[in-house]
Fold these 2 entries.
Entry 1:
Amino acid sequence: MAPPLDPLLETVAQRIIAAADELTALDSAIGDADHGLNMKRGFEAVLAEKQAILAKPLGEALKTIGMTLVMKVGGASGPLYGTLFMTLGKELPAEPTVADVARALHLAVDALKARGKADFDNKTMLDVLGPLATHLASGTASLVSIRALAAERAQATVPMKAIKGRASFLGERSIGHMDPGARSSQIMIEAVCDVLEGRS
Ligand code: ADP
Ligand code: MG
């Protein structure tokens, strides 16, 4: 049985809020130094609405999280993370299996690609989220392998040249830095794994 949404939401939000300085530092290297603050603002707003969110069925709860992120995060990442959560909300059944999550995440990644007109290897959050969807669909995923994949995929953005988003303005100079959105995605995935393992 899936764990209740409360600890998942709380832990994801708290980890993102705690990582604000790190995310902003990454964004100061290849962007405009606001990713940490953007995400912190968004997840503080989600926490402020937590009780109302938890009163809803899973799908509606995820859609509300997505809409809150669109409204509060701003920047490029707000609409993108908003699209991610809203698509998950639309596609997930009330009691999702791993296969359900794989399918919903795959559709969310497609929606995110369309929304940002981006593809894999463009040095964005897609480079973490896309491979995760594929890994979950393989049927061989474990909490250990999911954590390792997310860390490896965030790291894999370091040598990439940014093709999308603000970092692309830097061209070759975007090489050698981790993508802030890839790192925020990794932090969320790790938070979910920790809750599922009872570590949070
Ligand atoms: P902004 O770039 O508007 O300042 P943020 O700093 O909050 O917004 O978010 C930057 C992150 O958003 C990037 O690190 C990248 O992962 C992601 N991103 C930017 N543009 C795109 C895009 N077109 N498709 C997917 N992700 C993107
Ligand atoms: Mg930014």
Entry 2:
Amino acid sequence: MRPVIIAANWKMHTSPSDAGELARTIAARTREPHVVRVICPPFLCLAAVGEALAASDPEVAIGAQNVHHELAGAYTGEVSAPMLEGLATWVILGHSERRRDAGETDELIGRKLGRALSAGLRPIVCVGEQLQDREAGRADAVVRNQIEGIFRALEAGNEARSTVVIAYEPVWAIGTGRNASGADAAAMTGVIRAGLAAQGFVAEAEDVPVLYGGSVTSANIGEFLGEPSIDGALVGGASLKPDEMAGIVARAAITAAARLGQPAAR
Ligand code: 13P
């Protein structure tokens, strides 16, 4: 049975002076059973968030928003996987904002994936089509190609790959207030799992959690979690708002309890 995961992508928001307090507030407002919570602050805020959560709610996992594809070297301004030890246990890879602004390709994201897995970081690998792809009926093909390009180089025997999480984030839904429909997102989880199976994840493809991301709020999270094939959300703007996170995680707890065959805690 797949877990229910709510991951907060704080993007380029917060600073070391305020991130710890925000993380502590969100943790306190989202203490629900059986929901995997992850907060991904900027690199500079990882230590502050780590300290705040260690003292208040160590169950909340901490993720980075990116990692370099090499272990060390002349890469000015970059952060490698070994540097994240003790600071993060998860990492977002291939976010569309990095594809757009840093020119990340599927092949490069695949190399980052290998580094992340070797370092014991749990990756949230992002895929998603542009608006013109969806309008032209190419969304499925684009996402299938991304999965193939990212996972092509990952050896079938890599045991760490069972930790992989995918986030389906249609680019046109990110930061726009225009979310995909639950049905469309659910259809894409089928494309993603078929793509993973084609890359050798044959037995495990159905076990890989697939999250939805793109203008998720407490008001629309139910549309996604009502789909049995969707396992949670990667939340951007709303993840900086404790009220929103409280509502999102409370709704996730209902799905998590149902999956476990338990009555919801409330
Ligand atoms: P928004 O929730 O702000 O649309 O961002 C989604 C996202 O990019 C999460 O990674």
